[in-house]
C-alpha cells in the first residue's frame, strides 16, 4: 500500500510546473488523477506519465466550468477524495499601470477558481471523508514587489482555507494550504518584469538556498492529501527553501 492508494484526486494546473509535478507524484503514490488546465496538448504530454489518469481542458475562472469539471471527475471514477488547487498565475506589473482586466485575471485564476472548485467538490469530499489542499504562495503571507493582484488573491486563498477549515471543523473533511516559495517553473523562468524594475527588490523573491524543484513541493501536497496527515486541518504550510528564515 502507498499513501494515496485507492484515492481519486482532482488536480488543477496539471499541464505544467507544480500542477504537473503534483499529478505525477499523486499517481506514483497510488492515486487516480483527473487533471485540468487550459492547454490540452500539454495535458496530454503530462498524462502520458500518469497511469490511469484522465484530463480535461477547463477555464477555472468560470464557475460553471468548475462545476462541470468536478462532475466529470466523479462520473469518470465514481468518487472524489482530494481536490488539489494548484493552478496559479503570476504577472509582474506596477500597480499604477495594472489594468482592470489584468487585476481580474489575477483574481479569477488565483482565488475565484479555487473557491468555485471547493464549493463544487465539498459535497463529494464530505461523502468520502476527503480533503482539500490549496496552493497559495509565500506571497499569500507576505508582500511581493510588482504583484498587487497576485498577493491580494493569494492572501485571499489563505483566508479562504482558514475560513473553510473553521466551517467544517466538525465534518469528516480536512482543508489545508501550502505556501511555496520560488520554484523552477515556467512562471519563474519565463517571467517579465516592468521595464524600470528595481532588481534588488525582485531578487528578494528567491530564497538564500535558491529556487526549488517543484517535485519537492508536490511531495508536501501529497503528504497533506494522505492519511499520514489525518490530524492536520486548517494548517498553512510554508515550503520556501529557507526564505522565511532570512
From TrEMBL:
GO MF, any single term: oxidoreductase activity
Pfam families associated with the record: adh_short_C2
UniProt keyword Transcription, yes or no: no
Similarity field: Belongs to the short-chain dehydrogenases/reductases (SDR) family.
Protein name, as recorded: Short-chain dehydrogenase/reductase SDR
InterPro entries: NAD(P)-bd_dom_sf, Sc_DH/Rdtase_CS, SDR_fam
Gene3D superfamilies named among the record's database cross-references: NAD(P)-binding Rossmann-like Domain
SUPFAM superfamilies named among the record's database cross-references: NAD(P)-binding Rossmann-fold domains
UniProt keyword list: Oxidoreductase
